[in-house]
Design a protein that fits this description.
This protein is mainly α. It has one domain (2-85). The chain has helices at 2-23, 42-77, 81-85; strands at residues 28-30, 33-35. It has a two-stranded antiparallel ribbon with strand order 1-2. A hairpin with a 2-residue loop joins β1 (28-30) and β2 (33-35).
Amino acid sequence: ANHFLLYVSIFTITISGILKKLYMGETLNFIFFKFGFKKDNFILADVYYDVHVYANYLLLALVTLHILAVATHHFIFKDNILKKIL
């Protein structure tokens, strides 16, 4: 479940950051293309900003939980999980 939530939070951070930028009236440069909305919407930009911030907090918590799980397996259970990772 932790891996799935890691991927969901990374996806959410990316999409909410893009949408926040577009709803602020800015253009998004992607390789040779420029994307933008014709009309800005600051209310939605604030919503996507909040989603972006809280998804970053969630990602930080999940990475911390992941590191604690590896440390628990290595120091308490004394299995070879760290050698399998490296």
